[in-house]
Amino acid sequence: MQSIRRHLVWLVIAIVGAFALGTVALSRGEAISALWIVVAALCVYLIAYRYYSLFIADKVLGLDAKRKTPAHRHNDGLDYVPTDKNVLFGHHFAAIAGAGPLVGPVLAAQMGYLPGLLWILAGVVFAGAVQDFIVLFISTRRDGRSLGDLIKQEMGIVPGMIALFGTFMIMIIILAVLALIVVKALAESPWGTFTVGATIPVALFMGVYLRYLRPGRIGEVSVIGFVLLMLAIFGGQAVSQHPDWAALFTFDGKALTWMLIGYGFIAATLPVWLLLAPRDYLSTFLKIGTILALAVGIVFVAPTLQMPAVTQFAQGNGPVWSGSLFPFLFITIACGAVSGFHALISSGTTPKMIDNERHMRFIGYGGMLAESFVAVMALVAASCIEPGIYFAMNSPAALVGNTPATVAQTISSWGFVVTPEMLIQTAKDVGETTILGRTGGAPTLAVGMAHILHQALGGPGMMAFWYHFAILFEALFILTAVDAGTRAGRFMLQDLLGSFVPALGRTDSLPANLFATGLTVAAWGYFLYQGVVDPLGGINTLWPLFGISNQMLAAVALMLGTVVLFRMKRERYAWVALVPTVWLLACTLTAGWLKIFSSDPKVGFLSHAAKYADGLAQGVLIAPAKTPEAMSRIVFNDRLDAALCALFIFVVLSVLVYSVKACLAARRVNRPTVHETPYEAFEPVRS
Amino acid sequence: MLNSGMSLPEAGRYLGRSLAQSLRLMVGQPDYGAYLRHMAATHPDQAPMSEIAFFREREQARYGGGKGRCC
Question: Which residues on A lie below 8 Å from B64 (Cβ)?
Fold first, then answer.
């Protein structure tokens, strides 16, 4: 009786969640409130956390409250510090939340909100949160080692090196795609460009303030920085309304690309206290604050979902990105459902601060559920604006034209009724000259956020402010990621080059640093430039590459989880890691294969290259290329992207082979063969 | 830990302190007080870093090491 009563409240949650999900899934024709999505998601998270994560903690991993964690064993007050679990949750969440969960769901909304929502919920419960939790567990049991080290230790040196190299390539693609999002948001937008540009002097001021005037006063300087940023938004408005100043801050995509490349190089070579650290304070706090504000805004405003639950583009052939629902939806929404990059965070600073093993459930599994909720909010924001406007912003000009009249006509012909006046008025509302072809997700999210937040605070007059606030918030942490990522790439590259030419590996040598930084910037800059000049908008090419590689990294992390479970002699529970691994392998390998070999030139790189190569051979120009040189550049880039895709497939397949070998070897032995740090008992000091 | 035995002001102080610690830790700054307690308990022979030196050491450790950031 007692045990039934214990589960009663969870039964109620399950029924409420099932009812909400049913309402979301079965609404046909009539528009429903976004609150149904929020309630459905929260109920799913609660049930999954209460039951599935507890099952993983108790049965699968066997978390032991009396086992000493690295934070206690190596306590140094610096890296290894036993930390309150709520405090550590905040740290971990801030480290995993980035632009990914905000952009992917926006792009996926072209199929309607339902497919994306279902994947976000199922993905996080059975794959994403499981991955973060298991990797955190594996790393904590091994003194907080990094993912690369863990793979080396449990599978061998070769797969470890392969995984590290794969990680470097993924980072290059991430940097390119993130920078592309900023370029797309700021092109021809003097308001946005001024505001985002102003963050550089603001950060420099904060850096000097923290270094020389009031060292260590992060809270104080962040408040000052925040006020300056808000002033920069109003300054941007003034600039955009003044003809001469507006012209000074209006750039096309190519110019912005070169500026970003230059910025990336300089920012990554400056001392960290001057630009990187202070801007990270701003972007971290702004990110957390905005996520909370959006959550409150959605609950308070309860916007109606305008996008249909499922659109005709679920069949494939969508304008925002090409390809059918399987496998492409599952690589388009990466972060938010499952993200391989989290494996790097879960094996980074967090495992060194775990106070008690039992906390890993809340921090690893729970942290990812919170991230997933961010993705759900992004999906809501994208789905509550007029579908016609959504498609006008996200469809490349090569498909729908570049004047309000032609765009409105094309999109209305798809069944999403929109008038040229609506397009012009929306641009005016958000303080821009145009919203057409603003691909990349960020501007759409900004319109959606402005749509929600202006109803909560400020009224219609504040729509433009909220739009540019949202653009600023995204650009700010993307620029931080570009800066930090370039540095990380430089260190990885120096590590790699150092094994061939020792002089290049010296991180204290300025020429070696500049050389490695230059190479890293050139690598992501190349893909960024390619994306900017791509007539189909670049996101079409780069986002799938990013999604495939990120999900493959997740598959690698889950394969590591499977191997460790086998080595612990817990193979009867290995399905917890194995099922999501198989699913991710199916999605990423199919997607990778189709991106290379599909005979549809909109999907397959090689058939697209062949189309242009044939055109070149016959001396005909194929639109949108205007010169034979442009055509041969398209051919070259397509083949390069195909090669990159093939490389990712090679990486994941070779790790798969090593994993299978390691699992079989573990099965042959009748005792555990894991490399955990030996057991040491301790008395947990607190409840 | 928050527990039912706490009075309201105590709970408020705990929450405020946790929030401040959490925000600082989000940008890579662990608790200076915990560091001092650790040094006093295990290395009483060594002089601990000053608060400013501690701040700079942690700043360099977070950003100088070339650690990646999440997408």
Answer: 272
- Computed over every residue of chain A, the mean pLDDT equals 93
Q: Cβ–Cβ contacts within 10 Å for residue A604, how many?
A: 22
For residue A218, the chain B residues in CB contact (below 8 A) are 23-24, 27, 29
Q: What is the mean pLDDT of residues A653-679?
A: 95
Q: In chain B, which residues have their Cβ closer than 8 Å to the Cβ of A226?
A: none
ipTM of the complex: 0.92
Inter-chain CB proximity A216 and B34 less than 8 Å: no
Cβ of B70 within 8 Å of Cβ of A88? The answer is no
Collapsed DSSP state (helix, strand, coil) of residue A304: strand
**Interface contact A619, partner B, CB < 8 A:** no
Comparing CB atoms, the residue among A87, A281, A491 nearest residue B66 is A491
Nearest to B63 among A84, A276, A349 (CB): A276
Q: Alpha-carbon distance A167 to A179, whole Å?
A: 18
pTM comes to: 0.96
pLDDT of A236: 97
Neighbours of A249 (CB within 10 A): 19
| C-beta separation of A491 from A498 below 8 A | no
Residue A499: count of CB within 10 angstroms of its CB: 9
Rounded distance between C-alpha atoms, residue A44 and residue A659, angstroms? 32
Candidates B52, B62, B71; nearest CB to A215: B52
Q: What is the DSSP string of A105-173?
A: HHHHGGG-HHHHHHHHHHHIIIIIHHHHHHHHHHHHTTTT--HHHHHHHHH-HHHHHHHHHHHHHHHHH
Torsion region of A441: left, alpha or beta (phi above 0 gives left; psi -120 to 50 gives alpha): left
pLDDT in tens, A45-93: 999 999 999 999 999 999 999 999 999 999 999 999 999 999 999 999 9
Neighbours of A50 (CB within 10 A): 15
Taking contacts as CB-CB distances below 8 angstroms, the residues of chain B near A687 are 1, 3
> Which residue of A78, A131, A495 to mutate against B (max B Cβ within 10 Å)?
A78
Q: pLDDT tens, A441-454?
A: 999 999 999 999 99
- The answer for A144, left when phi > 0, alpha when psi is -120 to 50, beta otherwise, is left
Count of residues for chain A?
A: 687
Q: CB contact, 8 Å: A323 with chain B?
A: no
**Would you put residue A62 in left (φ > 0), alpha (ψ -120 to 50) or beta?**
left
